[in-house]
């Protein structure tokens, strides 16, 4: 729901609750914040507008929401305090007031990280599986119906609201084809749209997968459709794009999980919402580090200067980014030749020397940001088969520079994204300064339409601020850390350094 500009007919009192203000308004109801002086209780009062009070179908749905919600005794379902009808025929429901925001608002504010999204869908999945055991299918799972508040212990509280579209399992088989469809098309399962099969909990699994898609990528699975008919047809006929197309950091395993949850046929999906949430969690969990491969002579590596432009970023009051957003920064890099292979004298031959030599593969180049003194960066032996070259660096001398950094080149694009996913999984995700999405795409000012890689901001396990970024054309990954400061500005300073050195 969204806050309306004005509600001229706002009542003074409903059901003993004194109306304080409007919390939001949807197509079929208005929600007020009310205070009951006798109970000493704040409540969210959902009221059926006078214009709809005479519609029997709308009244039936409104009454069903109250009855269905009241029968679900779960801490993640909004509690019902009371229900009634005003003297002029308006139905109302007094519900527990959850102070906070919605998952949809968190996405729009850039505050929905992958880790937070996993927490949201995991708790919503628990609610849905409970409701399904009680014989209730929600049928309208979407980010705006997920309330985000705070628990007494400071942890985030996640509440599933709006059971107005819910159906009782015992009656779904008797639903008439072509009946009224009240669920939101952007998140609706194909069988709910077509009405060709009986609906069960797997319809909510589909909607939860659509919700997760939105939380992680910022987009619905089928964007760009301007009419409900086009959107409905997309759910029935089209395959959703891989989640990694919009979130390049996402591993292939997550693509498979979401694809299964969005299967057109219910029998091809996960049987329960909990199974889907568990599979998504496993897909984003760090995989065990593979055993080191036998040592081999690495290719000759050169580090050469290459110009980089500053990334496009959104400006906010919290941003600590230096210089103007329109200035492209040329990065001067350190030129170092890393000669790792031994001389010909080190080779023992069992026969005569060959008359020809096999040419070595061309050396890979790795670009280091400016600010590293000679000798502070050293090449290492990759322990991951997907990494071709790796270099570890000490402190960077430029303002805001990291205390340590690791720079690597992956063997292919898949290995690059897998390594980034492991970095993300081992840190606490935070929104980047300037309200930049994390993880999210970054771009150069010279070519703002084309993402060049993925940017991630986080807090490492030891509390150090961390920034990781990829430059996809070179299969390049950098992970840099800074030292926490009492004023909390370390991440801002590190981000400003990255913005001028990326």
From TrEMBL:
Single Gene Ontology BP annotation: regulation of primary metabolic process
Stored Pfam families: Pkinase
Highest taxon of the lineage: Bacteria
Enzyme Commission identifier(s): 2.7.11.1
Gene Ontology terms for molecular function: ATP binding; protein serine/threonine kinase activity
Biased composition (Pro residues): 287-298
Region (Disordered): 281-302
The entry's keywords: ATP-binding, Kinase, Nucleotide-binding, Serine/threonine-protein kinase, Transferase
Binding site for ATP: 46
Domain Protein kinase: 17-284
The name this protein goes by in its record: non-specific serine/threonine protein kinase
Organism of this sequence: Mycolicibacterium aromaticivorans JS19b1 = JCM 16368
Taxonomic lineage: Bacteria, Bacillati, Actinomycetota, Actinomycetes, Mycobacteriales
């Amino acid at each position: 729901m969204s806050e309306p500009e004005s509600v001229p007919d706002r009542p003074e009192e409903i059901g003993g609750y004194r109306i304080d203000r409007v919390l939001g308004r949807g197509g079929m109801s208005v929600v007020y914040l009310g205070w009951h002086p006798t109970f000493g209780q704040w409540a969210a009062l959902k009221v059926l507008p006078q214009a709809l009070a005479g519609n029997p179908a709308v009244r039936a749905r409104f009454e069903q929401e109250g009855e269905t919600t009241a029968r679900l005794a779960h801490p993640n379902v909004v509690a019902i305090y009371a229900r009634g009808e005003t003297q002029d025929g308006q139905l109302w429901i007094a519900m527990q007031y959850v102070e906070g925001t919605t998952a949809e608002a968190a996405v729009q504010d850039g505050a929905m990280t992958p880790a937070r999204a996993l927490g949201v869908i995991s708790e919503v999945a628990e609610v849905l599986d409970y409701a399904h055991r009680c014989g209730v299918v929600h049928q309208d799972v979407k980010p705006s119906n997920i309330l985000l508040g705070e628990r007494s212990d400071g942890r985030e509280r996640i509440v599933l609201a709006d059971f107005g579209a819910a159906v009782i399992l015992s009656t779904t088989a008797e639903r008439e084809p072509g009946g009224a469809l009240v669920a939101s098309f952007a998140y609706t399962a194909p069988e709910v749209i077509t009405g060709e099969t009986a609906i069960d909990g797997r319809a909510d699994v589909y909607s939860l997968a659509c919700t997760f898609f939105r939380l992680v990528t910022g987009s619905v699975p089928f964007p760009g459709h301007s009419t409900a008919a086009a959107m409905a047809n997309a759910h029935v006929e089209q395959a959703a794009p891989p989640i990694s197309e919009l979130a390049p950091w996402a591993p292939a395993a997550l693509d498979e999980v979401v694809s299964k949850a969005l299967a057109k046929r219910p029998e091809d999906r996960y049987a329960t919402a909990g199974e889907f949430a568990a599979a998504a969690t496993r897909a984003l969990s760090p995989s065990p580090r593979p055993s080191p491969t036998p040592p081999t002579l690495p290719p000759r590596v050169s580090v050469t200067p290459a110009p980089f432009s500053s990334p496009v970023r959104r400006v906010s009051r919290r941003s600590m980014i230096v210089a103007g957003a329109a200035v492209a920064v040329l990065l001067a890099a350190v030129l170092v030749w890393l000669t790792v292979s031994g001389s010909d004298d080190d080779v023992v031959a069992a026969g005569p020397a060959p008359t020809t030599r096999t040419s070595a593969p061309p050396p890979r180049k790795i670009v280091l940001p400016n600010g590293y003194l000679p000798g502070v960066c050293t090449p290492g032996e990759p322990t991951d088969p997907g990494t071709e070259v790796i270099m570890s660096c000490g402190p960077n001398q430029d303002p805001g520079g990291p205390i340590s950094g690791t720079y690597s080149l992956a063997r292919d694009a898949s290995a690059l994204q897998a390594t980034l996913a492991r970095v993300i999984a081992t840190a606490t995700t935070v929104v980047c300064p300037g309200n930049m999405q994390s993880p999210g795409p970054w771009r150069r000012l010279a070519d703002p339409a084309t993402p060049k890689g993925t940017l991630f901001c986080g807090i490492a396990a030891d509390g150090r601020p961390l920034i990781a970024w990829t430059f996809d054309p070179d299969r390049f990954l950098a992970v840099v850390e800074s030292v926490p400061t009492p004023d909390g500005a370390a991440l801002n300073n590190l981000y400003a350094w990255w913005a001028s050195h990326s």
